[in-house]
Structure formats: C-alpha cells, structure tokens
Specification:
Blueprint lengths: L11 H29 L7 H6 L4 H25 L1
Length: 83
C-alpha cells in the first residue's frame, strides 16, 4: 500500500527543459566568442588569425606590428631594470 511519492513534488520535465536551455545559451555564447576571435582577430590581443589569412589590411597590420614591438620593448625594459 506504500506509494512512491515524490516528497518535494518536483516537476522534472521543467528542470530538464531549463537546464537544456541554459546549456544551449552557453553553447551559443561560446560559439559567437569563437567566431569573434577568429574573424575579428582578438586572439590574445593580437590579430594572429587575421594576419595568417590576410583579412586585416596592410595599414592596420603595420600599426599593430609597431604596437607589438613597443609593448615587447617596454616588457624588456622592465625586466632589465629589475636586475
């Protein structure tokens, strides 16, 4: 005569639906971040992918190369000053 009752009265269909929706949203966010990094070249702050595939035009490439050189020089100055 003992019935198997769900004491918390949880509707598992809604919980599974909400979890699947959240996973889908996370997947879309990660997918669009991946696309942003690939096509806009924001991988680690450098246009690595865009350089390799020639998407960035030459003027932007030159400016970015100069900025990268300046950044490396500043890092090297900081290392030698501490010695």
């Amino acid at each position: 005569m003992a019935k198997n009752k769900n004491k918390l009265n949880i509707n598992w269909d809604w919980i599974i639906f909400i979890i699947s929706c959240l996973l889908l949203v996370v997947w879309f966010i990660l997918f669009f971040v991946y696309l942003w990094c690939c096509f806009c070249g924001c991988v680690f702050g450098y246009n690595i992918w865009a350089f390799k595939h020639g998407i960035v035009n030459e003027k932007i490439k030159k400016i970015l190369i100069i900025l990268i050189k300046i950044r490396k020089e500043k890092q090297n100055e900081g290392k030698y000053e501490s010695l």
